[in-house]
Structures are given as C-alpha cells and as structure tokens.
Amino acid sequence: MTGNRALRGTCVVVAATALVAASIGVVVLAASPAAASTQSITDPVGDDCHPGLCDVGPLPQGDVISASADYTDGIITLSLAVLKPTDPSRDPNWANGASGAGWDIGVTGETVGLGAVDYSVTMIYAGGLVASVSNSAGAGDITLCSASPTFDGTTYQVSFPASCIGSPPQFWWEADMAYRTGPSLFDETFDTAPSEVQINGVWTEMLTGPVSAVTATTGYWMLGTDGSVYPFGNALHGPSAPITGASASATHIEPTPDGAGYWVVDTLGHVFTAGDAGFFGGSPPLGDAEAVTSMSATTTGNGYWLFTSKGRVFPFGDAKFLGDMSGVRLNGPVIDSVRTPSGNGYYMVAQDGGIFTFGDARFQGSMGGQHLNGPVVGIAPDAASGGYWLVGSDGGIFSFGGAAFHGSMGGSQLNRPVIGVVAYGNGYLMVGIDGGIFNFSDQPFVGSLGANPPAHAIIGVAVT
What does the buried/exposed string (b/e) look like for 223-235 if buried means 16 or more CB atoms within 10 Å of the residue's CB? Predict the structure, then answer.
C-alpha cells in the first residue's frame, strides 16, 4: 500500500492561502445541486490498520466512515468523516503535525492504481489547519498550491481551484486518514476510503471515479459586513470590497443584469464594482444618523439607485428619480429597497414592515402596525405575479398580492437571525447572519457558510 504520500511520509508543514469556496452544511429545503459533479461513498467501520502497517490497532479517530468529492464551477471540494471526529485545535495527536487527513487524485483514468496517483492533497494542523496540493508523480512531491481547509465538528474538508491540477475534465480519487499517537510510523491508525484490496498479496489503493466537471446552472453571492464576497454555484469569483475605516461597513450586494458582475455599497454610499459592473457615482450627501442601506440596479445595468435609512433616494447613471420619503416622519428606518421588475418603479420597506411605493410599484399590503416576532429585514418582488414577499429576522415570510407562499423558517430555531431575502426561481432565498441559506424555490441549493460562519456577519445575498 502506498497511501497518501504526504501522510505516510515525513510530515511537511505547508502555508495555506484563504480561498473562497462553497461550504455545505445547512438545512436544504429544496432540490440538491446536480449530482453529476458529486460522488459520495461509505466505508466499513473497523477495516483499517492492515497487518504490518500499524501496531496501535483500529482507533475511531482514524477510522474513515464516509467521504465525498465534488467538482463544480472550477472548484474541487474533498471531504471525509471518521467514526470519532476530534477537533484538530484541541487534539494533541493533531497538534504535533503527524496526524492528518488526505486525499489522492488520479487524472489519467485509473480505477485501480498500484501507486498510480497523480496528486496528493494533505490537511494537517500547524498552529491552525493548513492544506496543500502536491504533485505525486516522479521522484519527489512538489507543492502546487494551497487549499482551503475546514472542520465543522463532523467532517474534514478541503477546497481548491481545479486549475491547480490542470483543470482535468474528470478525476478519480480516494480519501486517507492517518491518526498517529506516537513518533513512529507504526504508532498510528491509517484508513482509506474506499477500502484497499490485495492484488497478488500486495495491499493496493483503490481509486473511485470518475467525478466529472460541471457548471452549476445558477448561483448566488453572500456579502459580509467587512466587504467579503462569497460566491456559490456559477456566481462570478470576483474581488471583495475594500471597506476601510471604522465608520463604514458593507450593506448591500447587487448583481448586474447579466450576472457577470456585481456592485457592493457601504453605509457611506461608497460603490465598489466587479466584473462588468460600471461605476456611475456614489458617496451621496448624508444627514446625521443616516446611512445607505440598499442599492438597486436599472434594467440596463447602466445606472443604479442608492436608498438610505431615512427613505431618501439617490439616482446615478440612467436611474431616474421617482420620489422618496424625504421630510416624512418614519416609524422605523428603511432597511431594504428594490426596483420593480420593469425598472420603472421601486419599493421601500421599513423595519416595522411599512411599505412605500414609487413609479409603477403597486402597494398590495404591508406589516406596518402589525405585531411582529422580529423586525422586517428584507423585501423581494415576485416578477410573475407583481406581488412581493417580506421577511422577518425570525425567518417568517409575509406574501402580498399574487406572490405565493412557499414556506418559511418562522417558528423554527435558528442559529442566527435572518438578514435578507431575494427572489429565486419561482420562490425566494433567505440568508442568515451566519451565512446559512434557506431555499424555498424550484432552483438548486448550491452551498452556504452555515457550517463555517465567517468572522464578520453576513449582511446580504444576491442571485445571478
């Protein structure tokens, strides 16, 4: 048995680079992503520790029970779970750098390999989780790139750009776990999934596969208050917004009409662009205790409106001023605004659920004056019916006009409050402050941050 070279040989500490990658781990309330890009396998319990390879006997911390591989939108994500997972930051047998998770990848068509592995992916703990991708062909391993490692309490996972290994159309793979309790190579449990087989008396690694590259049919971005942008599915992997200073934080992300770019705006009205998004102005004059809270693009993509907490509107580019709430006393701040599907009007919603309409936006009801379990945090128009949905921080959905109710999180226990809603397929997509996604539509769930919340709160979501 050769096993994962980076795990079976001398431990090498690698430097990790943060990569934005889809992290799965929330309740999926709609169809899962297309299965063509994902392969999952189970592994028998207690089948590790082949004779002569380790002396400590099977340990649950090193016993692989399942593993998976995904190849979507140019990102490869590999994971494995063990019978008794341990937190690498608290486990001394991870902390010494000798224990770790790994994966072997073959790209030349092997389904069974006698050491026929082209690349090795290794996750270890060295003051923090680090991971790397190495070239396993030839006399020595060469580190090709860093990978993004995570541990969510159950599963060890890494993600990296497929370009790191030449963006193959498909690959074969196996998962490895080395749990070492002492300095010797034989003071460990070493397990693979799929299980190894004997060929002519030699323990031989088995590669599964193939896992083929696919492109998701849809996608979305999440935005953190620090300006970080997290893409999922086919969403552009663009830059984060360089929010600086303590006086501003990111507040809204807006897609361009063709989904090939986006704008990010902060509370001071600074506008940042990515992809094919154009800059048409920003930084409007704000009053005391007034902040920009949302943004909406015109149908052409050649302009946008900025909306403030006091209900004021600032148009830029080809956006037309259609009225606002200037000079009107509000019962609560305006927290979200969005144009109508035609682009000839816009809605505003206040924290108390009050709705304000302009242009061809039609008032079809509101939650103003009603008892709410949590403040209203977002509005999404339904292009099919002309109605709209409101969402509360408790995940409750309120439907108006012809907008159909597809379900909600109201009454459910949430890890963190909901912060926004967008129209998605025939329904809507909600996002929590922790990056959890709740999908009530006919479109696929393509990932979330729910299992690995970022350091800075999520403030919004936008779909391609």
Answer: bbbbbbbbbbbbb
Delineate the domains of the chain, giving CATH numbers in brackets. 5-212 (2.60.40), 219-463 (2.130.10.10)
Beta bridge pairs of residue 155: 81
* pTM greater than 0.85 (yes/no): no
DSSP letters along 62-81, please?
Answer: G-EEEEEEEEETTEEEEEEE
Q: For residue 301, is pLDDT > 90?
A: yes
Rounded Cα distance between 437 and 450, Å, is 7
| DSSP E strand boundaries for 248-375 | 250-255, 261-266, 271-275, 292-297, 303-308, 313-317, 334-339, 345-350, 355-359
For 410-446, the pLDDT digits (tens) are 988 888 999 999 999 899 999 999 999 999 998 888 8
What does the block give as tokens for 211?
Answer: 């896992």
Q: pLDDT (tens digit, 9 = 90+) per residue, 143-176?
A: 889 898 988 888 899 988 888 999 999 898 999 8
**Angle, alpha carbons 88-156-5 (nearest 5°):** 90
